Fold:
Amino acid sequence: MSNLEPLVKIGGWYYQAAYGQLLPAEPDTGSAVPVVLEPRLHSLLNYFLLHPDKILDKDTLINDVWPDGEGTDAAVMRAVGALRKVLGDNVKAPTYIATIAKKGYQWLCLIEPLTSVQRKPLTAQTLTPPVTPLTTSDEQLSATAAAEKGLPWRFISAVCSVLLLGGTVLAYLLASVTVTPLTRLPDSIIPLSAVTGQEFWATLEPGEHSAFYWYRKSEDAPLQLARQDLASLKVSYSAAQYGNASQALWLDDTQLVFRALDNEQRCYFYQQQVMPEFAPASKVMPCQHVLVQGLAILDRQWYWLDYAADLRRYELWKRTEDGSTVRIMAFPEKWQRADQLLLVGASLYLVAQQDFYRSQLYRINLELSQLEIIDNFDHQIITSSSWDQHHALLTLKNSELQLYSLKEHTQLSLGPMTWQLTQPQRYQQRILATQYLDYTTDIVKLALGNGLLNNEQSWQTSNRNERLFAAKGEQIAFVSERAGDNQVWLSRAGESRQLSRLVSGQYIRQLFWHQDLLLAVIDNQLFQIALDDGGLTLMVDSQVTGRYQSCHDTLYWTEQHNDGWQLLHNTQQPEVLLTGVVNFKCAPDGLVVQFYNDDKLALWSDRTPLQLLPLPVSLNWHHILPEQWTSSSQQLLWLDRQQWQLKVYDWQSGETTRYAWPASALPLEIHSDDAKSIFSVQPRHYDTDIVWLQNRS
Structure:
């Protein structure tokens, strides 16, 4: 593809050739979602673009696009048809690909190479708004006319002073909200790392001659620290290997500090000299958990977040230059997470998640050991980093990269090209980030038998992300991105059809049946989805903070309030059933409930509402996601991520059985139905790259 520009415009699309990403080219695409082509369509479109206006017969396409022995006339016809469908082409009046009778296919559409000057920004013209002159030509003429009429010089001087003062104030206000530029939205993604495998959390050494990042060959391989020379692109590796590791920060010009698990799965802070050559890493002090973004260095003092397992809470600690440590703050048990520190200028910020869905940003007053709320976000903040003295760069769940003003509390999207990027770090006019390549999840059916857990079959496979699962008899609802964005699909007797028609950017968080109704939590609100046309009906006006579930034809839910968490039922006149409950699942005669202040699960029944029956199962709500434990009429199931096991508690016998997980990666979700079937949302093998996000200029 040496003659194909990295970014081109073809008809109604921007196309990024290296990654097979299509972006709608309409003027207002702030919420557009990239369409990622399947590998065969990616290769086919690139081949067409390399041979515009040329008639390509099927044999040529088979020889040049398909691997040996895999191409057929039928395969070419199917692929061309699928590509036309993605592009929105009309076979009878083609814009993109024409069929030339008895000869082959021809690319018709104009291919426009894009530069930073040619390309229209996708969401905003610039990150630095132009300063409009205060005095227009009409105002200047009026001032001149006034002078000619002989107005007193003191009056003229006063007017000029007011205008000058106003200009100064406006300039200050503009300066206070102006972001140090990328002068235009980024329009290019350029790979930096060139190794097969997965790379994470890149950082440049202070001289910006070398990049350092974590590397592993596959999902189940250990992590190694890699150094890549930016001139020669040569990569070298530190000898030490870790099961898990945090973002590495610069202690000085030659040393990195990070948190990692040693060979015995114990957490330590490590300090390692990496310039000019790797030296062995040394353990500095123990920690309790590896929190990926839980460390900041300010005025040569370390600040870090940790999780106190015995107290079930997150805490903020400080280490001074002499090595002494002190706990500064402890955060409420009822918060789901408090695991990110963000350093912007000389201020330290905390990213917390008080419920299952939303994040909060706080400024930490270190002198008073207090939190000052900055903003609430409807989406989870996945990663955060500093942009300049007044702005932060945020990765939000199911969103593009966002530039956030800490003064104005406003967000600016960096465009749909940033949709699949995370862990961003700004370096001058560019952003260094991690890009997930071909990340796909499947819904897999599993079988238990003879003490083994076996992958039986991929229940849903589409080369797009599949997740969530809700079964009611033969009707099975699930979420898929096979139509480009996450939508609810309905499967029955092996046939699947798209049910919902959500607008781009809406995100489905829960999916379940209540009696004969299909319900979903979409963007923090509960909706009913019509089974005929996919229409949405709002069920509850208030925002969802907890979990919903239908058990024994009764709708239950949890929600957070000022005093903690509650379990409720009856949406018309909500009634509190229990306090302290953050999550629950259905049990044969009631509910199995999970508390924020106790790891022990318990059984609750509306027949004996004042009694709780403890279960021999402990699940910490800070460490297990709601989708990582489930129940059926026969059993309770949950993932033990440390032991790499699925554990199953039998309701009748009261015994727990352990099954080794059969795949190379743990699932993101597990689900069950009343036919004793188990389903998992399983990620396929994927790669990541360290990339530059920048303007082409």
Q: What stands out?
A: The longest strand covers residues 441-449. Confidence is low (pLDDT under 50) at residues 115-156, 166-183.
